[in-house]
Amino acid sequence: MGYEVRGLAKSFGELRVLGGLDLEFPAGRVTVVLGPSGCGKTSLLNILAGLDADYSGEVRGFGPGKASYVFQEDRLMPWMSAMDNVALVLRRFMGKERAMAAAEEALEAVGLQGSRGSKPGAMSGGMRRRVALARAFAYPSEVLLLDEPFSSLDLRTRISVMDLFLDLRERDGRSAVVVTHDVREAIYLGSRIATLSDKPAKARDVFDLTLAKADRGFTSRAAASFEARLYESILS
Amino acid sequence: MTPGTRTSRAKADAFLAVAVLAAVWKLGSIAVGADIILPAPERVLSTLARVASDDGFVAALSATALRGLASFGVSMALGVSLGFAAGVSDRFRAMLAPVLTVTRATPVLAIILLAMIWFPSGIVPVFSAVVMAFPVAASDVAAGVRSADPRLLDMARSFGVPARDVAARIRLPSAAPHLASAARNAIGLSWKVVVAGEVLSQPAYAVGTGMQNARVMLETAEVFAWAAVGILLCAASDALFDLLSRRLSWATK
Questions:
Q1: Of these four, A39, A157, B30, B129, which has the most CB atoms within 10 Å of its CB?
Q2: Which residues from chain B sit within 8 angstroms of residue A50, using beta carbons?
Q3: Is residue B4 part of a domain?
Q4: What was the pLDDT predicted at B253?
């Protein structure tokens, strides 16, 4: 199933943040929406997640409960263990026991089997991101929404968590929409990149990436030359 | 400075404050020169020892403690359930607001006097304390429930977490530190109102009854001694809630 928005517009009072956005998000792919900070990327994801119904235009394929949202912050309950945090979003689909077992499995998939009883306050930023990813992947959604999910991490941790995301996504095959202002992150993660103009945001260009994974790295020349094309699109 | 040093300093400062208060009291009693107006601290202490060894003391203390705890229990049960409902529902909060305002603004003596018309003497202090304390607990709990991080609530909404799980696993734990403060406020108020209610309604066994009898006999030192018993009850519950709030704030970190 395809996912798209047509003529999507959103304002906060007088301020127009989305100005008639047309975007397609092909099924089974990672679409990165790349735009300057504050251009309305989070507003777009909130609409796709069903958290914001105050918009005009058409939204197809998305809706409440259909998406797993990885927010900019971890949004983990500090009083709950990693396992309880993941299990909380699963309980309505299965009993408590099965939700706990599924949460344990999800934490194992992100390499946190030894930290399932730890509370977020006792974890590093990278570990908390992994818990947020485990929660998103464990949730039986149709699509993953990620809002600048790795930008708060140092480069080494960021690469390792991004690799983890790409591996899980590859195995899972779920469609994903990632929004970011970071060009290199967009190249690293996306199989398709849509650039946005500044407020009110409109779609500028769409790039289908054919670079091999090895050529997307932060030190890759091929990625650097592609980076220039993306900057041209954003700054034009 | 290490935390241990800070705690010791705070204890030393508290001790100093008590010593200064006792000194001022002593000087005041010397200046007044009449035990019937202001007895000396050592006189109050010896009277307290005598009162504590009297036959009816344990019964009076137990009855007042039971009334205080019963008032506290009912106030918390009412305060937590109404406060929780007011925290999650704007409409319920709007409906509860005038009730809380009226009960808060009503003079405690008016409530005690009305209770004396409606209830037997042993119940009057409990009823009055509940009426005074539950609005305080309800307001604290409602504030705690409303203080839940909206970003966590949005997360729960995006994942379709059912309302009962949001209530039990996000809103209630968010309110935990406020719950300790609600409990502390409710029990502090309960002791005061229970003793005030006992002074007026005169149950057979009560700290307040002892205080009132002493006043009638112009035994000022004994009035002070009974007041000290009330203060000790309040201090004991405060210490308990300090411990509880430390545990709750630890549990929510």
A1: B129
A2: 158
A3: no
A4: 47
